[in-house]
Amino acid sequence: MKKHDPQSQGRGVSRRSLLKAGVAMAGMATLGTALPLRAQSRGISVTCWGGAYETAVRQAFAEPFAKETGIAVTLVNNADLTRMKVQVDSGNVSWDVFDSIGPQIMAGARQGLWAPIDAGIVDTGKLLQPAGKDHVGTYSYAGGIAYDPRKFPDGKHPTTFAELWDLKRFPGRRGLRSRASENLEMALLADGVPPAQLYPLDVERAFKSMDRIKPAVRKWIETTPETVTLLTSNEIDFSYTYLSRVLPAQRAGSSVAMSMRQTLNSLEYLAVPKGGKNIQNAMRYVAFCLRPDRQAAFCEQVEFSPNVAGAVELASADARRRMPDMKSPDAIIINDAWWGEHYDKLQRRFTEWLLV
């Protein structure tokens, strides 16, 4: 009988241990939890708004970021706060970066949906409008009244929100967004509230003013590209839309124009949802979007004003001329802090009002 060899037993145990360790490492690599290099290359999804905005985001941010880092970016044209909340509450987060307007971002912050900004990755020191603890402003944009200049060659189209509400003087089919923010501001301005005295919003007065225009609203618009395409397809006569949609449409040959006499100006934001599987890569994307060169590249394509110091100087003179005028006394800057406290309640009320 062969004698027991302790040295041989030791070798056998060592081999078995290595095999077990190898299996464990393979399993952990599959889950993406043990190999940092694999985790770093994991792709992220970012909400978006479609149309020219999506094209600019893809070319200025998503594709250069993927090329530089190896992290693929999928753009999802659905910045829906309700769906985002369901994801976070369920622990099944599929959107890694939420790109949206102030009222939604602030409401999400109040609900605790966003992860704290990682100061070790994201430099917020050069922002013109300061960052929150869990969100950053990226650029400002202008919203106003659009129309087809071929249908109104003599200039008989509304240029202010009071004129948009004047159904007798300016008859025609209106298109407005299906959300409370911006509509309530326009309603109060149309009812004679001075721009400097707009906030806090007189909600009851705003809804009464909305009652006046409601019969003329042919379409309550959910997706941003439709604010222009419904005009160009002659489904509406006047639309609330954005300069960043109108000018690219003009360059593409569409007959559309926008009055700049009175505009609502807002800040766009980025936030990283809590509970995401790719938070570090999401933070890297946010940091990339705040680089002055990337902000300038974005604003070359669409009509936004950068929120990062040094970015405007990198943009061309033509791009700077297209940026919204924030100094006009008729222009309004949306109060995102106010909306952060009231968005959920007023959006529910606005949705119910639409159904009446």
TrEMBL record:
<keyword id="KW-0732">Signal</keyword>
<dbReference type="Pfam" id="PF13416">
    <property type="entry name" value="SBP_bac_8"/>
</dbReference>
<dbReference type="InterPro" id="IPR006059">
    <property type="entry name" value="SBP"/>
</dbReference>
<dbReference type="InterPro" id="IPR006311">
    <property type="entry name" value="TAT_signal"/>
</dbReference>
<protein>
    <submittedName>
        <fullName>Spermidine/putrescine ABC transporter substrate-binding protein</fullName>
    </submittedName>
</protein>
